[in-house]
């Protein structure tokens, strides 16, 4: 009798009158079974974006500290940095979208607290070289965040198996991609128990709804369906890539370890606008560093992919 809940039940057919488990114990136990990471080393957030924001609050002093990002990369690192008044240092990827460990470590100063590495990278889609990532983890005393939102589509091994070796490593994953649960907004962070305890102290008390916890827990007992969906998406990715490179105004399709393709075209902006007129929305990345005239295209169903291909052929 402490939480001021309604004791008479809920106005829905299901009981939602009690607050959910604030630490999601049952869900974390199942994630432990699947991921092989101790449940005490798991943080669950309202999307990975919540974990990113909390990392700034926990480890960075506003107006004083800085982080390092590796463009082109996921945009929320920069958004959260601005919101939390944390300075940003940028070390661009190479022309083939790989990280440059020596240059990154040269940018580190006394106020550098976090380095963000997206692998597979968004928007380029490629996996980062393991040796380069390890060089950064081993050469930096601050927190290294490896964002693995697309790891389920990659053949590479997750960095979660190295958590026991590196207390400054944090790995992020999500249920929004391979698991097909984007609308539930549930992200995962894996790190040392000490880091997870810090995140749990500063998160909102009930950041994951009971409905989300129950739904995801049921989904986690259907791993075969997830694996089948991943297999289907990868098959469609090969089909889309093979078809795109045959179109005259497509110059290059970059290798991808994710569920999307980065495509260099002749005139990205006019093609992007044309596709909108055809009621097809892709992502225009042409203003992003190293992505001149590039569109990022998410793998769709066969009918969606065919409609896109037909529109591009008619452009």
By secondary-structure content and strand pairing, the structural class works out as alpha/beta
Helix content: 25-40%
What is the CATH H-level superfamily of the largest domain?
Type I PLP-dependent aspartate aminotransferase-like (Major domain)
CATH class of the largest domain: Alpha Beta
- Secondary-structure element pattern, one letter each: HEHEHEHEHEEEHHHEEHEEH
Written description of the protein model:
The chain is an alpha/beta fold and 315 residues long. The protein folds into two domains: 25-221, Aspartate Aminotransferase, domain 2, CATH 3.40.640.10; 224-313, Aspartate Aminotransferase, domain 1, CATH 3.90.1150.10. Helix content is 35%, strand content 16%. The protein is built from ten helices and eleven strands. It has helices at residues 25-35, 48-59, 76-83, 101-106, 130-139, 193-202, 210-219, 223-244, 268-277, 302-313, and strands at residues 42-45, 66-69, 87-90, 112-118, 143-147, 169-174, 187-190, 250-253, 260-265, 283-284, 294-298. The strands form two sheets. A seven-stranded mixed beta sheet has the order 1-7-6-5-4-2-3, with helices on both faces. A four-stranded antiparallel beta sheet has the order 8-9-11-10, covered by helices on one side. β8 and β9 (260-265) form a beta hairpin. α2 (48-59) packs across α3 and α8 (223-244) runs parallel beside α10. The longest helix is centred in the C-terminal third of the chain and has 22 residues, at 223-244. The model has no long low-confidence stretch (mean pLDDT 97).
């Amino acid at each position: 009798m402490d939480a001021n809940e309604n004791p008479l039940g809920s106005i829905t057919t299901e009981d939602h009158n009690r607050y959910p488990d604030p630490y999601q114990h049952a869900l974390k136990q199942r994630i432990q079974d699947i991921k092989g990471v101790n449940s005490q080393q798991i943080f669950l957030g309202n999307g990975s974006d919540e974990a990113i924001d909390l990392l700034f609050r926990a480890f960075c002093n506003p107006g004083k500290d800085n982080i390092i990002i590796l463009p082109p990369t996921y945009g929320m690192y920069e958004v959260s940095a601005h919101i939390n008044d944390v300075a940003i240092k940028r070390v661009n990827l190479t022309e083939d979208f790989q990280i440059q460990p020596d240059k990154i470590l040269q940018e580190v100063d006394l106020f550098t607290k976090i380095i963000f590495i997206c692998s597979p990278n968004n928007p380029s889609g490629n996996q980062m070289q393991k040796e380069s990532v390890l060089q950064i983890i081993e050469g930096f005393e601050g927190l290294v965040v490896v964002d693995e939102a697309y790891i389920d589509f990659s053949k590479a091994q997750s960095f979660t198996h190295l958590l026991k070796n590196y207390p400054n490593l944090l790995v992020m994953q999500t249920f929004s991609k391979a698991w097909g649960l984007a609308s539930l907004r549930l992200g995962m962070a894996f790190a040392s128990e000490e880091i997870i305890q810090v995140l749990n102290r500063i998160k909102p008390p009930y950041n994951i709804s009971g409905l989300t916890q129950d739904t995801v827990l049921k989904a986690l007992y259907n791993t075969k369906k997830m694996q089948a969906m991943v297999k289907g998406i990868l098959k469609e990715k090969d089909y889309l890539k093979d078809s795109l490179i045959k179109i005259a105004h497509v110059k290059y399709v970059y290798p991808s370890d994710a569920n999307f393709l980065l495509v260099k075209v002749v005139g990205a902006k006019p093609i992007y606008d044309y596709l909108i007129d055809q009621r097809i929305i892709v992502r225009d990345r042409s203003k992003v560093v190293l992505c001149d005239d590039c569109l990022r295209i998410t793998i769709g169903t066969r009918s969606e992919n065919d409609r896109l291909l037909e529109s591009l052929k008619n452009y």
